[in-house]
Amino acid sequence: MNFTFSQERLLSKLKKALFCGILLAVIALFAGCKSTKKKVRSQGKVGEIHILMDKRLLAHPLKSAIEEVFNMERPYQVKFVAFDNWELHKTQRNLLVVGNVNDGSAASELILSHLTEAGRENARRNLGFVKVENDTFAIPQKIVYAYSGSDSLLVERFLQKGHNLADEFRLFEQSQMHKKLYEKGFEEQLSEKLFREHGFYLKLPKNTSLNHTEPQQLSLSHPDFSCQIVYADSGQVVPQMELARPQKQHVFEFKNMKILASYTDSVAQYAFADEAQKRKYIFQYKVKSSDQILAVQTIFATFENAPEHNARLKIKNFK
């Protein structure tokens, strides 16, 4: 069949229109699939950790071992829940699923379903302990599966390595707060001023103000937190900021330093000695909400002494 020039042009336009229509339909189809798979916002409070276990284990010494491990600094709180329906719990913000994979419980079957074939075999032979997932069913979310092949070994593993699990949740919450605090950048000049005048570095978020009160005493103010800091060099006495009858104390390691965290209902405090600088520090702040506590902890995690800060700057400039 022969076509005139105008007919060929019309046919070409029709083909292009048909192609564009098919392309748009495919794009719409993929977009629709993507929107249906969009993850929900996670449930639960900041720092609240739901621990799912078989009902049998809630009356076992394992529970006490886990409580000992998670006797950590505020705002982190654990809530033990007897495992029943996974669908009711799987969108929680922080989840720790604990099970003996040889007891045939629903919690153990769930754990095994998240492991590879080799992983399941290792778990049954007591070789496995932890599997970590992020943002699997909701955002933001941290899920940790802790398992072993016997009840007694579960207790032993928690007492030996359970602090690593506590750190998983602490670092997860701090990473979320870090995104919030620094989404608009940070006060670089103010952070450098703090380093020049006081010999230590903190990455201060936008809208932070730094006030000097007395020698070697200063305060940080921000819409999301406030903090008092005192320090003393070797041979000097640290100005006292004692907490009356702390209700909770927790020692954790940070950059090879042991930090004593003490808490009352209204005040929290970090006290530590920096051996590299031969200096003692106290960071103290008012306890108002979980978010504010977490904000101060996140700022504290950026702490660098003079040798560490100078070394980082050299590496940064070298790159």
Fold and architecture overview:
The protein has nine helices and 16 strands. Helices cover 40% and strands 28% of the residues. The radius of gyration is 27 Å and the shape is globular. A seven-stranded antiparallel sheet has the order 9-10-11-15-14-13-12. The protein is α/β, with parallel strands linked by helices and 319 residues long.
Annotate the secondary structure layout.
Elements: H1 5-36, E1 40-41, E2 48-53, H2 61-69, E3 77-82, H3 86-89, E4 94-100, H4 106-113, H5 117-124, E5 130-134, E6 138-139, E7 142-148, H6 151-181, H7 188-198, E8 200-201, E9 209-212, E10 217-222, E11 225-233, E12 248-254, E13 257-263, E14 267-274, E15 279-286, H8 290-300, E16 304-305, H9 306-318
Parallel strand pairs: 1-6, 2-3, 2-4, 4-7
Antiparallel strand pairs: 5-7, 8-16, 9-10, 10-11, 11-15, 12-13, 13-14, 14-15
- Could you list the spans in which at least 5 consecutive residues all have pLDDT below 50? none
Widest sheet, order of strands? 9-10-11-15-14-13-12
Helix content: 25-40%
* Major sheet description: 7 strands, antiparallel
- Count of separate DSSP helical elements: 9
For the residues shown, what is the average pLDDT? 85
Share in β-strands = 25-35%
User: Based on CA inertia axes, which overall geometry fits?
Assistant: globular
The SSE order reads HEEHEHEHHEEEHHEEEEEEEEHEH
Task: Give the terminus-to-terminus CA distance.
Answer: 68 Å
> Rg from C-alpha positions?
27 Å
| Extended strand count | 16
Secondary structural class: alpha/beta
